[in-house]
Amino acid sequence: MAIWAWMMQVDRLLLGLVLTFGPIQWKKERWELEISKGGCMVMTPAVFEAILRHGYLAMKDTNIIVFDECHHARKNSVYNQIMALHYARVPESDRPLIFGMTASPLAVKNDIETSIRKLEINLHSKAITSLNTGDISQHTNRPTVVVATYKLQEYTNQPSKTADVVSALANIGANDIAILRRLFNNALSIQINFAPWLSDVFLWRCIAQLHAEDKDMTDSCLTKTKSSEIAPLEDDETVQDLFSGKFAATDNSFVSSIFIDLLNERRSKSIDSDSEEKELLRTGYNMLSDHWRAGGTCLSIDQNPGVPTDEMKEFKICPSSIPIPPMLYTQMSGKFLRLVEILKPYSKDSNFCGIVFVEKRCVALVLAILLPRCPDLQFLRADCLIGRRGQYHQQDVLGEKKSTKRTMTQFRNGDLNLLVATQVAEEGLDIQPCNVVIRFDPVTSVISNIQSRGRARHKDSKYILMIKEDDHERMEQLKKLELQEQEMNTSLVKKMSLEEGSALDFCVHDIDLPPEGIFQVETGAKITVFNAITVVHQFCSLLPHDSFANLKPIFMTGPCLMPAAETKGHSLGWISSVELPVNAPESCRFVTGPACRFPVDARRFAALETVKQLYKAGCFDERLKPLRYSLGPTGEESERSDAVAAARGIKRVTKFSEMTTYDMYVPKCFKRKFPNPKLNPIHTKVNENFAEETVSYEGYVVLFRVDENGAQRVLDLGLILPFVIPSSAAGTHIIMINTKPTKVTVISSEVGIPVDEKQNFLLQMFSHTLFFNGLLRTSPPDTDENDFLMPVVPFVNGERVSLNINDTEFVSQNINWSMLASQENMKWSSFKEQSTASEPKIYNFSQLVGNFGEDLIVGDEKYYNRKYQLLSVLLGTTAGSFQMGKNTIVDFYESKLHVSVAIDPDQPVLQARQVARMHQSGIIQLPKHNEHVYLLPQFCFPYPLSNTMFSSAATFMPMLIQSLYHRLQTTEIQNTLNLNNITTPLMFQVAFTASGALDFDNYERLEFLGDSYLKLHLTVHLFAKNHTRDEGWLTQTRSALERNKNLLVSSIKFRLPNALRQVGVTRRNWCPPMRVHHPNHAVTVSSKTAADIVEAIIGACVVSSGIPGGGKAVSTFFAEHEVAEDVCSYRDHMPYSPLRTSLEEITSEYFSQEFLVQKLHNALGYQFRNTQLAVEALTHTSAVGMYGLVHCFQRLEFLGDAILGFTISQKIYELPQQLDPGKLTGLKDEIINNQFLAVASMRCGLHKLVIHGTAALAQAFAEFGVLVEAARENSASSKSADEKLFWQDLPVAPKTISDVLEALIGAVFVDSGCDFDVVHGLIHRVLIRPWWHLFVHSGNVAIDISNPIGSLYMLVENGFCDEIFMKCEQMEGRDQFYCEITKHGKKIVRSEGASKRLAKRAASAEAITVLTTIFKEGDSNCHCNVSDNKKTQVARDDDDDDDDADDDTLMAVDV
Question: Which residues neighbour 1172 within 8 Å (Cβ) at sequence distance 6 or greater?
Fold first, then answer.
């Protein structure tokens, strides 16, 4: 059984969720999930009506509806809409039961009988009440009603300045300004309810703060200019206190709360009153300023009536523990003092809980602040509870709801014991029983009286009504309310007795809507005339706009003649038209509704017709909800990182991306061509089970020519493969050798040499010996199938082989078969199975040294299995007599090396030196100490490679094999993507190389360029294919297409992560390619990295083939979206054509067409062919009167932003110093950010050509222009002009200025037929040529392009502290952001900025200095580094265990 209940207040719960705007935006799937759970659901009536209207729920699916406070079911209320438009329109058998509850069914304008009857009709129910009030009294407490009278105090000695200022400003038109009118009303209310002196304080502070808010916008730079029109405020201590932070919104200051309300109202004021309002504010400020400064040092108001005293100047209207000064307290109103007397007796009641009801918000705010500051009322913990007023922004509504919920929670928990509330607390809120409820202002209705009295449900509670003495009218009104309540109860009981058993007889409902008043679609979703206006307003608010445009529909209603059915003639009617903002679809820009009898109906039907047109234009979904695209924090990686940094710590940001393990990509050539049968070099002996001269496969030789210091040589080690490597894999490779990029040419034979089973075994065994017993510290796979895919082959002379590489006989003869065969009887400690011998073989090292000299390498199976260059045999010494300090070498082997077998004391001692070894990525690591090492022949064996071959060729083989194998992987993928002729194999390979590979280049720079081009290509595609879509839809759709999740799908589809080379070649982690994958061959890649490979491939194509190459790559990855390969081909799909009508009527108010085009030509150096594009690029969203002729600049700005971003990215990518990705991003951000573009745009004079309809925008242009000129002059006179970007220190520029420049770039692109050369020329003329020297000077970057955010993340990552958090949010009531960084809950940095990015950059830069010091000196309160340091030390010890062996070696050397 599903039960639906409705509450009037918004802060109700829906299945445990706070109900604000979220549930209304839920999609069908979410609602189906919630509804399927059944049970009881609690929600607001607006939410329930919305889900019925959108077709998520049908009336037949409910069993009972419970209406709380059902007396609201009147006229066009939401309750009535639910009943009339949803309940009454289904068959009676499908209707749920209705149960309504109310304490008073009375309406204000109707008598008792009519009110009850109306409710019955509207709710399709019968009114009943309890016949036995005694039953009710057993479950509730009825308060004692008390009337408290007060005397009206005369203020003969307190002439208020408030009345003078209000009167003076009213005479010059202040009452026509809504903000000032409301301010004056508040001031007068404070004067009447509290005191004239408090009204003066309030008015002065509010006007001063409003005046300062304007002053901040215009005078922040006055100290840099010569303007002094406004009197300085710094000399007045009171004014300084006003801006000292004591009146911040976060402090619940009364003045600040009123101030925030005024600013909110200011957002929707008429633009025509802007300048007038400023002038009136200036006049009021000057009047009060003179009055306020005239005050002396007198301590009493009586000593100098009408002049502010020091106590008044020092008094702050804000929460404080400082009592009201006695002299001021005695001058408070009799009404306020009476309220204090009423509350005093409760000072000893520890369980006191009370509510004071008032009419006005400002009175509630003042009472909540002043009562705890009164004598004997320090026990009060008060706060106010007020509803919202006027047209607020959504963020204000949400903030207010959070504040209301917080206040209610504190009141329930006992943190507060007194609420000062408006009527918002009368009903709908869950408030605990109170000791006392006081009506500070008179009660005016039965419902209000019953509801507020019902809050006093505590035992022995009181309900106190405050009335002025001798106010007989109020007393009579109170008696009348009590009589009406009694008559209501009597009428209900009488009605029940007369109608008992009778059938329900419902008359006409309050809402009787004709079919044309409803617009319904196939899904069952509907919009009616009652909510059409709201829906249209909601649609307009969702259109993209800036702070200077308050987008809303304009209704124009006028009289007309309409047919009169009664007289068959005509009668007077009304018709309304709706004009939508300029960024709405053209077909819906201007809509006219049908003629109606009343103006309000004309507006409603016009709004409904607008909804129909918007639905037809695709602006509403199938549920009749305005389309809105919100990716949320999981869609954008920057937002995602911010969320992680705030919730889980900065150190976890880099670990937050999902990691996936992929099998390493194996090229098909190995799967197809590798020899069969498979042979195991470990478990098979030479000369056993081999068929002589049996050919196993054709082997193709691969040689490597290395270019070192200008000289070339061919290594004597090569590879032998079972296939011819493709030409794209051969040729030039770049590998790192000793930290230097080294050119390596891969030489491949085209004719194979026969390789039989025995030879194949020797090759496999030699490769095993080279890698697992020489170069590497990894172990071979634990399997019988471990053939090397790329076996190594030694040559007698690699240079001669390279000259005759296709001569199979010559190549075979020059293979060093003797070296291969020398492994046959050698003993290797790493082998898993070894031939058993009765006695270990002892080699004649004297003879070997004589044959090979110092080119002989030996291995010591007991001495860390290292390889050493044998220098000589010390024949004159024996192991038993060779001393190492106090011990012999025998003791050293037994004690240090833990040798347990018997050691021959008569054997000679070998003198050797440790050979050079590969460290990582081609770095040849020499021994730390070049001293001699002493070995015992008993445990040594000769190594098959000579020292010359080992050091000059073998150490390079891992890097060479890795590069060639990686090239085979990437070229195969390149062929799959059909990009062979688009980019070079080397560049394509770089796209698969991560920075961790420590190679000569990595994909990050390519990813930077590819990201910019991908954004450009998708932007042009969406712009050309979606003519009617607004900039918001285009932006969000592009973000969805280019988001990492979407790119990841393409990356996995083509197996791109499988071929990523992400770590360097080291002895610990690298393993040569083998038939069975080594565990180290698995690739673990984050989702972001996998997506970055796609953008890196696009970047590689752009580098090699320009824009056409990038287009080919994008069309490959986005084939299912039908993205064109040639971005310039979209010229045929552009939505612009010459206007059929002249634009003269549009531009006449500003300038003529010819003047406009000529001005743009002078500014940009481009002559527009299509004037429509020029006009649209200059049209702001606030422009009105354009109807269906042009759009605003947003769509073109969307296009131009992407073009500009790619152009700048390409230019800085090609800088000769090859900036790293961090500097590329930093430099790009400096060039394309709003601040610089605004300065460049103003230099061209584009701000003077903007078509708009708001005075605030024009003023912002002018003010910013003054700042720019002053900063430019200061910069020009500075000696370091080229080192400073002067606009960085300016206040945030109006974004419109930069948007217009980007829109014009987009317009030129379209007007030129998608010619990138034309656009690049424009950008060069406007942005590069005049400004480039400030960014790049003589080929070097001339500015600091550091990335403090990234640097902070790296610092924290290496700082061993897990409890460093970053939180960045918008400041309450301000257009500023703050960023706070904490360490173990303690704030270490807090910075503010005009944007989230600027706040984060400032905080990060400061935090780097602080944390660097902390990490250096240590933090006694941080214990995170204990375990991390241990882990790091263990890892370091494990990595340096070879060095420990060196220490042992030194013990022998020192002897």
Answer: 1136, 1138, 1139, 1143, 1190
Q: Are 595 and 602 in contact (CB under 8 A)?
A: yes
Has this prediction a pTM greater than 0.85? Answer: no
Structure tokens at 1142: 């002249």
The β-bridge partners of 1381 are 1366, 1389
φ/ψ of residue 954, rounded to 5: -60, -40
Residues 786, 764: Cα–Cα separation, whole Å: 9
- Determine what percent of the chain falls in helix, strand and coil, rounding each to the nearest 5: 50, 15, 40
- The tokens of 408 are what? 């209610």
User: Using CB atoms within 10 A of its CB, is residue 576 exposed (0-12), middle (13-18) or buried (19+)?
Assistant: buried
Q: Which two tokens stand for residue 606?
A: 């016009």
CA pseudo-torsion sign 166, 172, 177, 178: positive
| DSSP 3-state of 1336 | strand
CB 1096 within 8 A of CB 991: yes
Pull the structure tokens for residue 19.
Answer: 């109900």
**Read out DSSP for 558-606?**
EEEEEEETTTTEEEEEEEEEEE--TTS-GGGSEEE---BSSHHHHHHHH
1062: nearest Cα among 1017, 1006, 999, 1140: 999
Other CB atoms within 10 A of residue 314 CB: 13
Q: How far is CA 998 from the centre of its chain?
A: 31
* Segment-wise mean pLDDT, segments of 10 residues, the chain, 1455 residues: 32 36 71 79 86 87 89 86 87 90 78 84 86 66 90 61 66 66 82 86 76 49 30 31 31 40 42 56 70 56 61 83 88 92 92 93 91 92 77 38 77 92 86 91 88 88 92 89 85 76 60 84 89 90 82 90 74 90 85 91 94 91 75 42 57 60 86 50 40 67 90 92 89 85 92 87 86 79 69 92 92 89 59 46 83 86 82 88 84 88 90 77 58 87 86 86 92 93 93 88 93 95 88 87 88 92 82 71 85 95 94 92 87 66 45 76 90 88 68 91 95 88 86 91 90 84 88 72 69 89 95 93 92 72 66 76 83 77 87 80 87 81 59 38 40 32
Distance (Å, whole) CA 938 – CA 415: 85
C-alpha to C-alpha distances, 887 to 894, 895, 1278, 1448, nearest whole angstrom: 11, 10, 75, 13
Structure tokens at 1429: 């340091």
Distance CA 1360, CA 127 (A): 71
Single-letter amino acid, residue 199? S
For 167, 242, 282, 402, 624, the CA distances from 210, given in Å and listed in that order, are: 19, 11, 10, 26, 42
Q: Give, in order, the Cα–Cα distances in Å from 808 to each of 701, 726, 750, 805.
A: 10, 19, 10, 7
To 5 degrees, how large is the angle CA 880–CA 886–CA 890? 30
Instruction: Calculate the CA 658 to chain-centre distance.
Output: 18
Q: Going by C-beta distance under 8 Å and a sequence separation of 6 or more, which residues neighbour residue 1184?
A: 554, 579, 582, 1253
Residue environment code for 452-464, b if the CB has 16+ CB neighbours within 10 A, otherwise e? bbbbbbbeebbbb
Q: CA 696 to CA 677: how far, in whole Å?
A: 8
**Cα 1084 to the center of its chain, rounded Å:** 26
